[in-house]
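Incident log, support desk, overnight shift.

02:14 A customer reports that sequence design results differ from what the structure should imply. Their input is reproduced verbatim below. On-call engineer (initials T.W.) acknowledged and began investigating.
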């Protein structure tokens, strides 16, 4: 049922789906870059170098640091590859949810260590990951290849 108001030239125009899609792609690329760099560093750098830069890797087992790095790298790839190839593009939203979980778990960890300054990174990245997850799972999912 169409109302007169919705066809009126004075009615506000709906936000373009292209605008939403661009915002989600921008978020995906930014998150992939951030988590890709962080994951590569945590996966490949010597623990002593990580301790000098981040401090916290010295307080947890090396295997956990490497696991977090692999999770971040996998998430970064998952943000882009399924969406770009349109093969299982739903995985893009799930990758964003996984990265949001990583950031959610980082918050109490850093707070317990008195590293509240880390929240300036964890909270915005977690919020952006949630935004991308919502966008790619609900608002503007990418259609799979036919």
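02:41 Re-run completed on a clean worker. Output:
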């Amino acid at each position: 049922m169409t109302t007169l108001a919705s066809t009126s030239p004075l009615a506000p125009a709906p936000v373009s789906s292209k605008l939403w899609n661009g915002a989600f792609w921008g978020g995906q690329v930014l998150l992939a870059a951030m988590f890709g760099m962080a994951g590569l560093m945590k996966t490949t750098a010597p623990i002593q170098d990580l301790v000098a830069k981040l401090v916290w890797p010295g307080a947890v087992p090396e295997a956990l640091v490497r696991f977090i790095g692999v999770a971040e790298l996998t998430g970064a790839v998952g943000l882009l590859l399924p969406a770009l190839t349109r093969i299982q593009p739903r995985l893009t939203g799930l990758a964003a949810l996984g990265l949001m979980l990583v950031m959610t778990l980082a918050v109490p960890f850093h707070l317990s260590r008195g590293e509240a300054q880390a929240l300036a990174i964890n909270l915005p990245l977690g919020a952006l990951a949630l935004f991308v997850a919502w966008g790619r799972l609900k608002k503007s999912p990418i259609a799979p290849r036919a």
